[in-house]
Amino acid sequence: MELFKEDKVYNFLGKGKIFFVASFVLFFLAIALIATKGFSFGIDFTGGTVVQVKYQGPAPIDKVREALEKDELFKHAAVSEFGSPEEIVIKTAASTDGLSKDIGDVTREILKGTGEFEIRRVDMVGPKVGDELRVKGLTAFLLTLGAIMAMVTFRYEWRFALAAIIAIVHDIVITFGFVSYFEIDFNIESVAALLMILGYSIHDTIIVYDRIREHIQESKNSDFVMIVNEAVSRTQSRTTLTSLTVFFVVLTLFLFGGDIMLGFSFPMLVGVIIGTYSSIFVAAQLVVWTGFSVGRYREKMAEKQKMQAEKEKMRAQFEQGIV
Amino acid sequence: MKLNYRVVLLIIATVFGLIFSLPSFTQSSEGKKITLGLDLQGGLHMLLGVKTEEAVNSQIKSIASGVKHFAERNDILIEGISVREGKVVFELLDGDDATTMDEHLKTIEGTVVHASEGKYAISITPEAVEKLKLQAVDQAIETIRNRLDQFGLAEPTVAKQGIDKILVELPGIKTAEEEQRARELISRAAKLELMAVDEDRSMRVNDLSEAEAASYGDRILEDALQPQMKHLVNEIPILDGTMLTDAQVGYDQNNRPVINFSLNSAGAQVFGDFTGKSVGKRLAIVLDGKVYSAPVINERIGGGSGQISGNYTVAEANDLAIALRSGALLAPIYMLEKRSVGPSLGADSIKASLLALVSGFVLVMIFMIMYYGLAGIIANLAVVINIFIILAMMALLGATLTLPGMAGIVLHIGLAVDANIIINERVREQIRLGIGLKRALHEGYSKAMRAILDSNITQIIACTILYVYGTGAIKGFAVTLSMGILASMLTAIVGTYGIFQLFTNRIEKSKNYKMWFGMTRKVNA
What we know:
heterodimer, A: 323 residues, alpha+beta, Multidrug efflux transporter AcrB transmembrane fold, Alpha-Beta Plaits, 2 domains, two-stranded parallel ribbon, 12 helices, B: 525 residues, Gyrase A, domain 2, Hypothetical Protein Ta0175, Chain: A, domain 2, 3 domains, 4-stranded antiparallel sheet, 15 helices, translocation (chain A), protein-transporting ATPase activity (chain A), transport (chain A), SecF_bac (chain A), protein transport (chain A)
């Protein structure tokens, strides 16, 4: 089976402005959404308690709410169905720090008489821990971006690195714009999803860049736009195939993973779509806009090769003892 | 035939992967297995904080006890010994004893002594305070570990996190009662103190306020068995639990469980001295700030052993003895984070994520075969071996598989398939150029390798940073992903090439590129 005609060069950059406008609009819409609506941060970051309860038979949500109202710890608790009518989650901003007075035990006491139930999960995070997670996570993320920037600069050029970073940020911001819009709980699993998108995005981008570099070196053409079009066209079947396969896996995780994995499967699903789009239409385009010049790059490469050759010559001379 | 080292490597990798991942599948007792995270298998996860200031407070009190005992033993008259604002203060009545007292105070490490006109104030140096705080955390970890070991749970984890936090994981906890018992055992301060009852003012205990009691250097303590009953005791204990050597459950004459404890030689001496001088007075046995009994001392008690009686069940007495034996917590601990997952939920999570992973994976496999023909099968083989290698490596490293770890595996399946796709696409391109298969394979692989290496090295660098700076879940993600990347380079770049090499002649002869690579060969030449 073959999807794309191998020898055809598609003019991806020709429509660059359209995609630029699309990305631009999406990106700033996402930022606006995140800024105004924000995330519904899970207790991993805000502190608080989540109790997941499974009833035998449909959960009596109203009775549960009524029972919880009476307790100080659950004054502003949110009760909602979780995955199935039997199961509910109770969320409250309160947490307890004593070991003997436990919020799980308290819940069990309060819910007594609402029916046959089983407490399946109690997550309690104190306010101090959430702060630390946020700071640490952000540090790790920024350092990682820095490292990627350094690596791409080393292997390609700083313009490529800059474009790659912009593309990554583009992907992540838009994805989490969706997370904000659909009010998906932002928890520690979402951070894992974010990392996955980061990995996926940079991987896709590098594969395209590798082709661009190859074409710069091999093609006689000096028109960078042409080279990029050629490179993106050549990688087209690979990008599509890979994206489809990753999409399959993530989609099944989204469909079968259930509500407990939503904070994780939803951003991944969106991220894979955005990441694929950006590696075809955004990442390469950005390099063109940074003012990359094929001529200069070739000169630099030639220079590098010359130096390498000279070094080797000197080493050979040195080893033979002719100085 | 030439030895095909690539195939040999692939076979070794396969055998390695199978052997070491097998125990995780069969759950046999032998061999190392992948541990499932608490989110998958159920259990109790707690992050505990330590109130280290309390450790400093009790150290100050302990210094006060020491000074008091020293003075009594050497017939030095002191007055008003008490703890004020983190300092031990007292007055020396006879100036002649100053040299002896000063000599003694010098031997107490980590303290600063201010003395003027017989008025003494001892405080702890800032360095000693820091050291005490650190010690309190380390000691708490040790103590909790000891207690949990004796509790009889399967593989509890007690580890230090950051500077002053303790991570406790108990995978074996199944019921709410078990959880409660474990929490109580962990949090129990188990601080034993032997305190003298202030007989002079004891009658007035019900009329005294806390502040008044403090002005006499006394404390009002509740009775453990009858909470309405109060005891007035000297603030500075005669002895504390640090001198305890053993605690065992025993039975009194009515066959009720009691706890017998013994003291070390220093403790026995202090205990003996005190009881010898205080015949006819009462001694309060105080555990965690509550008076368990206050027997009248009939004679000097040597040998350094005593008994705590209370209304215990055998199980309670047992837990208490464990707590006492494994040492007091120098500082109370509190809960920063708690996650408890019921076993049924964990099983559901595993089921859901396995279903998702397997079905997604099967879809990918079918797709690959449709698209690439036999090359697709080879690629699938590589990816399957790859997964076995990851599982084997995780088992060997004792890594824990969690939900975020599964994100790592999902991404990794994507990347592993991708490596094969890149290679196959490149090989197809080369075949289209009309060059011989052998060269086409060589060119295709070397070109694909550059792209794969660039991307993978970038990812591994990113993973390293995530591992160093990340917290638990992020670390798990980074470990799974980087192991996967290493394995995929081996199976995709080295392994599949080896297989193609084995079949090169056959493919050339058959000329069936449709079957092998899923493509029509247009020879441009």
